[in-house]
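Look at a sample.

——
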Amino acid sequence: MFDIKAIRDNPGAFDAGWGRRGLAPQTPAILALDERRRACQTELQVMQARRNEASREIGERKRKGEDAEALMAEVAELKRRIPEVEEEERRLARELDDLLASLPNIPADEVPDGADETGNREVRRVGEAPQFDFTPREHFELGEGLGQMHFEEAARMSGARFVILSGALARLERALGAFMLDLQTREFGYREMSVPLLVRDEAMYGTGQLPKFAEDFFRTTSDHSLIPTGEVPLTNFHMGEILEAERLPLRYTALTPCFRSEAGAAGRDTRGMIRQHQFMKVEIVSITSPEEADAEHERLTACAEEVLKRLGLHYRVVMLCTGDMGFSSRKTYDIEVWLPGQGQFREISSCSQFGDFQARRMKTRFRAAGEKNTRFVHTLNGSGLAVGRTLIAVMENYQQADGSILVPEALRPYMGGLEVITRDA
């Protein structure tokens, strides 16, 4: 959502920002709606003032015994007309809000321009890709070979894009989630939260999933939605609040199932666990002041990266271009982990800064000590990390020639000391 006054004051800057995302100029339609809405507001003020004035004149004339029929007819007409103009003003306000809500955030100046992922800019690479003296397998070959990754059985009960893990792989998934939560809470100061998996439309609107991306998640018959990411309940935790500045930054984390319809993903990543309707993810969220948002973005990204460092996984960080960036984001770093079985980097986390885009939708503000005025907070989030994709990365990077999987040292305490996952583990 956007500040309409800011658009009035500098429409060119907004059209330039949306133009970087490939959109035609939007401000002519916005300002035309705004002008009509404001004209209704002015007309209402004039009519209400005249109604009050005429009502007083009627009282005076009646006290003096003078004729007041013309004034009474005028007041009657005003009373008839005012609700019509009020409804027109509400209609125009809804239309304006709907238009503003459909528009993506303005990219930060440093975000590279580009139409798609080919315009992304690599920021850094960390670690080295493992070398094998055999042809590395993909995760689904390894998992099925171990007898612990079951796609056909999941499909019989749930359809495509689901999986059942068993044995040591199921425990490894649990271990990864616990390891990530412990790292974020014990070392980086994120507060662990247990959050609802079902939310109402207000929450989905607040973080930008609605109205534009209704097809991307699952809805229930009770007008709830299954969360596509822990970002939704964590960020909306302070919906409608005015926070005291000394409380900022607020940092939250949660391990949750996530549910996505994967609309438009037909034909992509149909084998394996890369793109699932249901998956586990550790989310990290920060709520801070505008002045600290850039530094917080770097910090949050580093917190997500540390998971991969502790697991000894090769990865790179890329800054997304304007054409590949999410709807609500003003700047995003994607962390991509190396998958030897695929021979390429794949996204494992997106760490985004939203400015006040989400805060305006959620109506979340803060007040500095001694100040009367409030300002919108800035919000940030990232995956710390996607558990399923981290499981894939561990399997492919720690595989052995016989199809067994070495357990990274950081995870062994969570695995009861298990060092190698074999078919019997």
The chain has a mean pLDDT of 95. The chain has two domains: 4-101, 117-421. The first strand starts at residue 121 and ends at 126. Residues 260 and 392 are 19 Å apart (CA to CA).
